[in-house]
Amino acid sequence: MIHRTALVDPTAHIGSDVTVGPYAIIGPRVTIGERCQVAAHAVLERNVKIGTGVRIGYGSVLGNDPQDLKYRGEDTWVEVGDGTVIREYCTINRGTSATGKTAVGQRCFLMSYVHLAHDCYIGNDVIIANAVQMAGHVTIEDRAVISGLVPIHQFVRIGTFSFVGGGSRVNQDVPPYTKAVGNPVHLYGLNSVGLQRAGFSPEVKLALKRAYRLLFNSDMTVSQGIAKARAELPQIPEVESFLKFIEGSQRGVLV
What we know:
Layout: E1 7-8, E2 13-14, E3 19-20, E4 25-26, E5 30-32, E6 37-38, E7 43-44, E8 48-50, E9 55-56, E10 61-64, E11 77-80, E12 85-86, E13 91-93, E14 101-104, E15 109-110, E16 115-116, E17 121-122, E18 127-128, E19 133-134, E20 139-140, E21 145-146, E22 151-152, E23 157-158, E24 163-164, E25 178-181, E26 186-190, H1 192-197, H2 202-216, H3 222-232, H4 237-247
Parallel strand pairs: 1-4, 2-5, 3-6, 4-7, 5-8, 6-9, 7-10, 8-11, 9-12, 10-13, 11-14, 12-15, 13-16, 14-17, 15-18, 16-19, 17-20, 18-21, 19-22, 20-23, 21-24, 24-25
Antiparallel strand pairs: 25-26
Helix pairs in contact: 2-3, 2-4, 3-4
């Protein structure tokens, strides 16, 4: 299943039922799990760990050096979880000594020309559309959806079940369960469509809507809104996750 023109380093480990296309390069200390597909001209440069059932598209490059002037050749990695699809011409750089790796979770879908810089962390079931460009240390939590042509500033966090509209320049954190759109980007309420598709109960959606209004549609400060939400709203895990995300923001959250 390995094309005769592919180059495979002796230290690489390739699982069973793996397809490696023409002129692909599998570099040193690369591990590829079972049932993976590596398309033609893809490059897994070095220190890459791929789970099972992963598909890597034509011309994609994983495991290249981080584009960080502080990088001094430390031994760092790229990790990709089971069932993830990486389409054509994506680039995923290795981490730096700050975290040691750039990681993509399970069952993610990275469309063409996506770039993940060093030390990014992508959760499970994340969809990232064409030409999204992530700077270093970006975190995208489970089940988030990022539309096409979105640049994301370094150290930004994008919360679980959130949605970012196409062409939005994201320079601050996007809270969980919300929708961020525009350039300049702003919050536009809850990600109602995403929550409905995911099967959230009416009680949870109502509590999240009330928490959102207290923090973003009232005259209170953020800390006052958080305190009032904890005092008045039902003790629901999703609401507490929403509040903790905002409390822990280092770059500030979008409004």
